[in-house]
Amino acid sequence: MLKILDIAVIIFEMISAFMLFDNFLTIDKRKYRIIAKTGFVVIMIINSCINANLVITTIISLAAAYFGVMFYNGDLKSKIFCSLGFVLISGTAEYLVGAVLLILNHIQPVELFNESAFRMVGMIASKIVLFGIIELICLWGNKKYAYMFRSYWLALLTIPIINLAIIISVTYYFETSSNRSSIFLLILMICIMYSNIISFYIFNKLIDSFETKMKNILLENQVNAQEKQAKQSDAENVRMTSIKHDFKNHLQIIDSMIDSNHTGEAKKYISELGIEKAAKECAVMDTGNLALDSIINSKIEQAKENDIEVDLNIKKLPCDLKLNGVECCMLLGNLFDNAIEGCLELEPTKRQIVFDIFFRQNQLFVGIRNSTCKQIEFVNGIPQTDKADKANHGIGLKNITEVVEKYNGIMRASCENGIYETNIVLFDV
Q1: What's the whole-model pTM score?
Q2: How would you class 85 by CB atoms within 10 Å of its CB: exposed for 0-12, middle for 13-18, buried for 19 or more?
Q3: What's the CA dihedral at 330, 331, 335, 337 to 10 degrees?
Q4: Are 134 and 13 in contact (CB under 8 A)?
Q5: What is the Cα–Cα distance from 233 to 286, expressed in whole angstroms?
Q6: Residues 202, 156: contact at Cβ < 8 Å?
Q7: Which end of the chain is more exposed for a tag (fewer CB within 10 A), N or C?
Q8: Residue 370 forms beta bridges with which residues?
């Protein structure tokens, strides 16, 4: 029976190991992945059969781990680091579980488990702890978990802890019960062990779905902004075409008004033509990049609807930036949203946003300043949301950070004398 448990535990250990390897290394072909997993399992089964001392067992475990990473891409240093890391984590998990079980046995008035049950619980519990540690490392190292909130992945990590408690409780019940079935206990233990992997798999799919949903929303916002800009541009072009068509007549009327010393009426007539307004609006849209134009114009219009004065310093930008439409929306959309929100608690006369963007030597510089009455708290240079429901806020900042990290950029934020300022530099865009 214990041999069946050994195989189940080794397969579980293999899944845990390759979850760690996949997070830090990449593999090209599926057949190599199958070979790596098969070799890992075979070597670990041999290791469990020879009953060698600790040193030899550790060496063989290291060999199994290295065989697992051998078919991955990457340099030798990375592969050795991953295989050594896995063996160290596995050994740490076994010692932790062994120490806890010894303490539990010591504080009991009678022996908690017999030798067979002690080995069964120790084997399964150590692999669950191993999986929990690797799970934590993967959560920390994978960028897509930027979409997760701390409370969510902490809740996920409670699953191994709950399973450990269930294993100890159920095993103790079977050990003290007169009507016990060893086979049933074995099957139950294996099911509890593998429930950790199932829980993590489901949770991983939910995070993928949430990430996709967020990017679809950003893409939809970008498309809507571009459609809106296109309509505005078409309407403005029609109006300017109409003005140009009658331009000679307009000049004659204005000239006549000036000759008659009706300067005020001439100014009024020019104002009614809307030439100054058209020029100003065209200047706003003319960054040279459609994606940036769309989101900037959309947010400027939103700011003006909220009586916020917007001061722009926009230089010509390349139309072939690596920054795509979704990333423009993630970066500029969230920066403007935060700036608009920061102004809303002020009186209309005090609301102001200053926006700078320019491109130089493959570097994109973005700066935005807004007036605010809020006192922003910073942790390690990162502004913290002041919303009561922190679990459902702060996504915007995480999206900004994701874009900055993708382009190896720098972000600096500060809040002094009623002015909140964010400056970003993106490299090689």
Answers
A1: 0.54
A2: middle
A3: -20
A4: no
A5: 11
A6: no
A7: N
A8: 353, 420
Burial class (CB in 10 A: 0-12, 13-18, 19+), 44: buried
Residue 298: what are its φ and ψ, rounded to 5°? -60, -45
Give the integer Cα–Cα distance in Å for 367 and 327: 16
Both tokens assigned to 233 = 């541009």
Task: Tell me if the domain spanning 287-427 has CATH number 3.30.565.10.
Answer: yes
Return the number of other C-beta atoms located less than 10 Å from residue 96's C-beta: 15
- pLDDT recorded at residue 179: 56
Residues 6+ apart with CB under 8 A from 290: 226, 229, 319
Instruction: State the amino acid at position 252 in one-letter form.
Output: Q
DSSP 8-state symbol, 391: G
Residue numbers in the chain where pLDDT is lower than 50:
1-2, 110, 279-283, 389, 391-393
DSSP 8-state code for residue 390: G
SS3 372: coil
Q: Is 381 left (phi over 0), alpha (psi -120 to 50) or beta?
A: left
Find the largest Cα–Cα distance for the chain.
116
Q: What is the pLDDT of residue 429?
A: 79
Compute the C-alpha angle 174/179/182, nearest 5°: 55
Spans of all domains in the chain? 2-209, 246-285, 287-427
Coil/strand/helix, residue 405:
helix
The terminus-to-terminus CA distance of the chain in angstroms comes to 60
Give CA angle at 160 (179, 394), nearest 5°.
Answer: 150
DSSP 277-294: HHHHHHHHH-SS-HHHHH
**N residues, the chain:** 429
